[in-house]
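User: Can you recover a sequence for this backbone? Please restate the input before giving your answer.

Assistant: Of course. Working from this structure:
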């Protein structure tokens, strides 16, 4: 086989391999950048695709493959997850940028967008007022909220404490600067039974600490409110969270607005949400609790939703 022909065959094989590997081509108006290939990231991406107007061209890539060619000719770039958000922000595309599956604290740490209003976000964490309202709705006899403040959650803890006072709770606060502080902080907030509100601060609540936190709270007859369904499965009484499908649908609305000539909405928490309930924990603590769907429906009505 002549060498030039062999070279062309190899080049064609390389191009086909790159396409099969998911490298996004330049040109489609919408680019989805994933921090992980599966799980919640893939589910969010799929939800965005389904909710966009029929015929909308969408490309998808991962944060490691992001580059100048990948970002060329885009109108909207949607990052999914923290690593994707960091990569997109550092690349500073000229397109409108919407970050998803990112905490508010994570969004605040990103490099600023080149133009004001060019970047927005749908936060992963729930607003403080919604979390406290759920506790008041689900646990009307509760009087104290336990709040643990870490390096990236000080602002959220301040908001939770303010919302707690507005709803008639007494906030009990402690600071966790390092792992060794956690046990002492828990003892401080559990001098009396309290409802512990977990926050997405990895220095305080992570896979290494969650079981100790849940067990300590249980020994003090103190229920825990988590921020993901995994918390309810692990032993939290309640969990308040938004699903990838809910966040993806909200993201698709923002993308559609930009494609129609509008602007991105300001950064905001998710509109739709779910409530998870662990009835086994409720029975063990002697708590009468409504099911998650009922609590979510009542909470949504309080917020003026459907």
């Amino acid at each position: 086989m002549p060498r030039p022909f062999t070279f062309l065959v190899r080049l064609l094989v390389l191009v086909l391999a790159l396409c099969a590997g998911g490298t996004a081509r330049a040109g489609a108006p919408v680019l989805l950048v994933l921090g992980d290939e599966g799980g919640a990231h893939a589910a969010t991406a799929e939800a965005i695709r389904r909710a966009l107007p029929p015929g909308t061209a969408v490309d998808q890539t991962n944060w490691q493959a992001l580059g100048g060619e990948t970002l060329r000719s885009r109108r909207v770039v949607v990052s999914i997850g923290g690593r994707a958000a960091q990569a997109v922000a550092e690349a500073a595309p000229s397109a409108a940028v919407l970050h998803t599956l990112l905490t508010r604290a994570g969004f605040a740490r990103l490099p600023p967008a080149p133009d004001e209003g060019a970047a927005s976000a749908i936060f992963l964490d729930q607003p403080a007022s919604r979390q406290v309202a759920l506790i008041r709705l689900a646990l009307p006899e509760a009087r104290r909220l336990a709040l643990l403040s870490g390096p990236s959650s000080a602002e959220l803890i301040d908001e939770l404490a303010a919302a707690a006072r507005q709803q008639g709770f007494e906030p009990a606060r402690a600071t966790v600067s390092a792992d060794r502080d956690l046990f002492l902080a828990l003892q401080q907030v559990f001098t009396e039974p309290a409802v512990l509100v977990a926050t997405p601060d990895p220095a305080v609540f992570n896979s290494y600490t969650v079981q100790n936190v849940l067990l300590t709270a249980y020994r003090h007859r103190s229920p825990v409110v988590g921020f993901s369904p995994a918390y309810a499965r692990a032993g939290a009484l309640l969990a308040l969270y938004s699903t990838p499908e809910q966040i993806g649908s909200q993201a698709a609305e923002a993308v559609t607005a930009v494609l129609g000539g509008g602007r991105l909405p300001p950064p905001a928490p998710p509109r739709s949400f779910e409530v998870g309930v662990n009835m086994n924990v409720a029975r063990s603590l002697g708590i009468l609790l409504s099911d998650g769907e009922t609590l979510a429906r009542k909470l949504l009505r309080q917020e003026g939703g459907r």
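That completes the design. Residues 128-241+273-302 form a domain with the Rossmann fold fold (CATH 3.40.50.2300).
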